[in-house]
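Trying the structure run again after the queue cleared.
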Amino acid sequence: MTTLTDIGVHHGTDKATVHRYCDFYERLFKGMRSKPIKLLEIGVAGGESLKMWADWFYNKETRIYGVEIENRPLPEFDDRTQVFINNASLPNAVFDITNVTGPVDVLVDDGSHYVHEQKDTLRLWWPHIKPGGIYICEDVFTSYAYPWWNTEEQRFTHSLNEYIDKIHGPWTNHQGTPENGEVEEITFRKGLVVIKKS
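Done. Tokens:
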């Protein structure tokens, strides 16, 4: 069987090579591969990862969306893929894009990597992720490096305490029976934060 890493290498995305995210993504998305999902990726560069996602999620009803801030030349995509030229960390952009896409199953933030924009993107897009959906922020090592982060601001990774509290905070009783909060789990990996919505 062709792996997601193989597909990513074929299309030339650094998710499969430099960052080595694809082995993890294959396990994460295994149960969704054949389902009719909506995936939106912020920051598509040359479109390599959009090609990879379109090959991996093969259901004919699946929709792959990309958001790119620069109007740069992109390859031709199949009819399931659409790219928006916009700044995904601005409220008006989110409004305009979600009017087309509706809620999404998977959101991948591979945008500017600036900490303040990662925070804005999560805050603005979280309501537009379906229940059971997945939010991913890539390359979060920028929370520890100038110029993406400076010492006067809170790191993106540290700003996630609010989401951690949404997992552990609400209980129905003293025995720790969880309520149906909106965050199911958070995974921290090298370079990645993954938040699953309840």
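The CA atoms of residues 66 and 147 lie 25 Å apart. Worth checking whether this holds up in the mutant runs.
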